[in-house]
Specification:
The protein is mostly helical. The protein has one domain. Helix content is about 90%, strand content about 0%. It has 2 helices and no strands. It is elongated and about 55 Å long.
Length: about 45
Amino acid sequence: MRTIFVMIIAVTSLAGCSTTRGILDGSGTVLEGVAKDLRSAGDMLGR
């Protein structure tokens, strides 16, 4: 229970300074790059 409370406080404080948004944007960019690479590899193997 205490861990959840600490996590809520941490997320709230990070969201206040827009750090969470930056982390999520960066993660999304990385995942898009990985997906693009996997699609390219699939196209190469499919031909």
